[in-house]
Amino acid sequence: MAGCACSHDIPKKSYSKKFRNALWIALVLNLSLFLTEVIGGMQSGSAALWADALDFAGDSFNYILSLIALSMSLYWRANAALLKGAMMLLFAGLVVGKVVWSYANGQPPEAITMGLIGVLALGANIISALVLYTFRDGDSNMRSVWICSRNDAIGNVAVLLAALGVFGTQSILPDLIVAFIMAVLGFSGGLQIIKKAWAERQQSHGHKHAH
């Protein structure tokens, strides 16, 4: 779900070409849906779509880290992960701001647009999970990216439920409740990533001084 604290551990053996290709497919899908949900969230007025976009942004960054990981030392991987965590905190804050603004204005989002984009997002995550399914029993990095894609589908289902709730009740509350829960999860995930990355950065710094 939002804020999946995906591992950025680097496997000892090199990535297979198939895994690299799978990561590229997942990256393109996630970046595309991130942009779609940000624009769709603005058009429909849905805070839940913005919250789900947080998932796609976090995963896109994770896939980029996985693709370039082989050429990065622990120190620079930790710095990149710190950036990812900070971006997740920033985006979670924006989503919470959107929830507060929407609640104050009281205008229900456009449920049909929400639902259509939710279906698109769910499809993208299912494709990502299927593409990465082969590597689910691989090293920690391979496993983490598959688990994230699988778990993100839950967030997409939550958006669809919010869209149904808005459509059925003509109330803004289903959208705001889902958005707030996903933003809190994103905030929690961002903090976890920052904590782990900071520890790795200190560990790397210690190794430098030891040498």
Describe the structure.
- 82% of the residues lie in helices and 0% in strands.
- Residues 10-15 have low confidence and may be disordered.
- The protein has one domain (17-210).
- The protein has helices spanning 17-44, 47-68, 74-105, 111-133, 140-169, 173-210.
- It has 211 residues and is mostly helical.
- It is a multi-pass membrane protein.
Radius of gyration: 18 Å
Our measurement of the CA-to-CA distance between the termini, rounded to an integer number of angstroms, reads: 40 Å
Mean pLDDT: 81
Helix proportion: over 70%
Query: Which strand-content bin applies to the residues?
Result: under 5%
Kindly state the number of beta strands: 0
Number of domains: 1
Q: Count of DSSP helices? A: 6
Would you identify the regions where 5 or more consecutive residues have pLDDT less than 50? 10-15
How would the global form be characterised? globular
**Class by SSE composition:** mainly alpha
Order of helices and strands: HHHHHH
The biggest beta sheet is recorded as: none
Organism: Acinetobacter nectaris CIP 110549
Main location: membrane
Domain Cation efflux protein transmembrane: 23-197
Membrane topology: Multi-pass membrane protein
